[in-house]
Write a structure and sequence with these properties.
One of its GO terms (molecular function) is homoserine O-succinyltransferase activity. The chain is α/β, with parallel strands linked by helices. The protein has eleven helices and twelve strands. Helix 1 packs across helix 3.
Length: 316
């Protein structure tokens, strides 16, 4: 089944050229099913790129997905046109009274700032708090994961001595967890960040479960015990050339940047990069949509609070 996106959204043309199944609202309205309502809080500056990356992954399941794009009112975007934002995005105030099956909160290039110094921090905190009883399951990605862990569980971040930059091997710690269903024992995923989350603090928290880690990159995947909150510290949504573009951009400016680990053949940035994380990325989002959203969210979203209370003692 497809992901339902507006006809004019730039990501739609890219996905259709890749033979990704997308659907218009008109066609979706003729199907006798309730689509999953998924909101995406897009904090990335290059919003169209991020839209395309996430929609590609969300489209790869047998479920119909209806997307709502959300932007910050308290931050002025300098890399995305006002026309695009006004056409395709809604504000938190516009969706505050609505309920969603799932929510994705993206990363953001603000990780070196204290959380409270981010200009939209108060607005994001309101969204994180709202998600507890208006969203059934939330996927937090990279800085979004750090923000969620800090707001919900008071777990901070630490600045790394060197940028965690490249594609790293990770190990599944609990293969029984539904989010890693079908995973190999080890898998790869991209990282691009200057800060990290203290693994020992997440492990010690009674409401959290660590599901995958890397000897080099540290914590990768964790979830709340009830499965309603997922935290991904890397960027499984990245395209083949995302790290290459970041590397060549900084290198051309004379900025200090190392060749991304495990990405270019023989660490040679003149060669095309190898993509080794794509299957894991698709499986991550398909498992989330199926096991954490579709299988558990109530058909009538008005029943979400009662369903959430029933799920409090249910570990997946």
């Amino acid at each position: 089944m497809p992901v339902n996106v507006p006809r004019a959204l730039p990501a739609r043309r890219t996905l259709e050229s890749e033979n990704v199944f997308v659907m218009s609202s008109e066609r979706a309205g003729h199907q006798d099913i309730r689509p999953l309502r998924i909101a995406i809080v897009n904090l990335m500056p290059t919003k169209i790129v991020t839209e395309t990356q996430l929609l590609r992954l969300l489209a790869n399941s047998p479920l119909q997905v209806e997307i709502t794009l959300v932007r910050m009112c308290s931050h002025e975007s300098r890399n995305t046109s006002t026309e695009h934002l006004d056409t395709f995005y809604r504000t938190f105030e516009q969706i505050r009274d609505e309920r969603f099956d799932g929510l994705v909160i993206t990363g953001a290039p603000v990780e070196k700032l204290p959380f409270e110094a981010v200009d939209y921090w108060d607005e994001l905190c309101a969204i994180l708090d709202w998600s507890a009883d208006h969203v059934y399951s939330t996927m937090h990605v990279c800085w979004g994961a750090q923000a969620g862990l800090y707001r919900h569980y008071d777990i901070g971040k630490v600045e790394l001595p060197d940028k965690m930059f490249g594609v790293f091997e990770h190990r599944v710690l609990d293969p029984r967890a539904r989010i890693v269903s079908g995973y190999d024992e080890t898998f790869t995923a991209p990282h691009s960040r200057h800060t990290g989350t203290p693994l020992e603090e997440v492990q010690a928290h009674p409401q959290l479960q660590v599901l995958a880690t890397s000897e080099t990159a540290g914590l990768y995947l964790a979830q709340s015990r009830d499965g309603r909150q997922l935290f991904v510290t890397g960027h499984p949504e990245y395209e083949a050339d995302t790290l290459a573009l970041e590397y060549h951009r900084d290198a051309s400016k004379g900025l200090p940047i190392e060749v991304p680990v495990g990405y270019f053949p023989d660490d040679d940035p003149t060669q095309p990069p190898r993509v080794t994380w794509r299957s894991h990325a698709f499986l991550l989002y398909a498992n989330w949509l199926n096991y954490y959203v579709y299988q558990r969210t109530p058909y009538d979203l008005a029943e979400m609070q009662r369903a959430a209370r029933r799920a409090d003692s249910y570990v997946i």
